[in-house]
Amino acid sequence: MTAEDPAIDWLLESDEPAIRYRTRTWLLGQSETSAAVRRDRKEAWGGPIVSTLLDFTPEAKADPYRKWWGLHWRLVSLAYFALPSDEAKVREKLDEGIDAELTWIANPRRLEAPQRLRKDGLYLSDASMEGNALYAASRLGHERDERVGSLVEALRKWQWPDGGWNCDGAASGYRSSFHESWATAIGLASYYHATGNPEALAAARRTAELLLDHRLFRTLKDGELIHSSFVVLHWPAYWHYDFLGGLRVLNAVDRALLRDPRAADALDLLEEKRLPDGRFQAGRAWWQRQSNATSAVDVIDWGKGQPSEVLTLQALAILKAAGRGG
Questions:
Q1: Which member of 12, 35, 239, 311 has the lowest number of beta carbons within 10 Å of its beta carbon?
Q2: Contacts of 105-110 spanning 24+ positions with Cβ under 8 A
Q3: For the chain, domain boundaries
Q4: pTM metric for this prediction
């Protein structure tokens, strides 16, 4: 990719320094020592989106899973950028937020609840919760916390034979839930990249194989679409699965998987979703603006009905990793 791409130009003009920083490093491959990268990196934690996400209010910490406003979701969105935490004040706030998150989600009473075990020996789990927490902790500098290790062990124990996870007690046991599995696999892969833990990578790779078997959004029986929402772009997706989430799994586990022939349909679809000017726009939003008094309010207005900077950054990064970057 080059700076002559109009979508790249647009991202480099963003008011969000984190967007500019990751455009330079992820898409253009610029060195951390370049003047422009150093400038955007220095300013990144003060950008309007990042600074708002970093504001862990008492209310957000008291109800961390509140959709989509709680601490849990703020950490997931922050973790996406994987910004270096060079400043002591930033590090202190991150440590405080992740400690609160782990105190809640890694509580042994949650992880070891006996009602999780089905009669057939499979475990029921809303694994995307632990998976997203693992993702945030691993990308924000807490991968060595013993509570993070307990999340990894729980997720490995709860994984179903097909490579995913499921919270549906009525499920046959033959297939797990893509919704519960994609973010979980990314969390495990992120933990591997932070620690080198091979068991976490093996678990995430099993999920990647599950998705590839389905070409990321097709049934095994006849290749038809599994669900209409699977082929719609969303940002943020939170725990909901779509084909971009599947591509993110492949990229997180091993970017070589993006060149697997079974990923071609999803990559073709991603290219088809690109607007004439090279940008990407979400087809649906799972969140509401704070002006709407609903339970699905996000602390960030990610933009509706218009091209999305973060979605464009992610989609172009996937295409580049797949060798389709132009």
A1: 35
A2: 105/64, 105/72, 105/129, 105/130, 105/133, 105/151, 106/133, 106/147, 106/148, 106/150, 106/151, 108/150
A3: 48-321
A4: 0.97
